[in-house]
Give the backbone structure.
Amino acid sequence: MTVTWRYAALAVRLLAVASAAIGLIRLTGLFGGGEVSAAFTFYTTQSNILCLLWMALLAVVTVKDIVRFGPRGLSAPAPRWGAAVMMAITVTMLIYLVILAPAAFQQAGSAYVPFTLTDDLVHIITPCLVIFDWFLFTPKGKLHWFDPPCWAGLPYAYLAFAFTWSALGGDFGSGRRYPYAFMDVQAYGVGGVAVQILILTVSLEAFGYLYVVADKTLARVARKRAAQQPA
């Protein structure tokens, strides 16, 4: 059920802002005096920036609504945009948990160590807070069946950026031509990369439809409960 207590929503949103901000600072080395540009070419960084901006906006709206209307009620403008942001960061979390972290453990002698504090902040904690916020503080029944294909536009825009950046001679830090192993055309060929992207697309679209089903189911439950309330 949707929680109509704005102070609770504000607390979650501020936590999400803090998690995203700290994770991004640690991930990019923004204030460390070193090279930071390569970090911003990764989907993880870009999706966390999107979450930071969105959750900060929600926090501001929530504060304004508390001042104007009091602590009771919802402060969730543009629920479908919120769901799009949630799906964008869900992609980050799922690819990390299902592909990147397991691959790091399977590669003997890999220099990459998953599940550090920085990784947890940008891949797990921030995504969970954004998802938690949507489930608890966003009105349900607003999503459409055609939303998941629309949400795929953000990851696909990143793929277009990453392949274009690589083709123009850009790298993703330490001379890497591709940000993620499943995008490595030299290793898998164009066909192999296309198949992996197709599999990921189908899997993530299925997960997106779980959000739509949850949205419609929770809305139906809320309507039934409202109908059962005495007049």
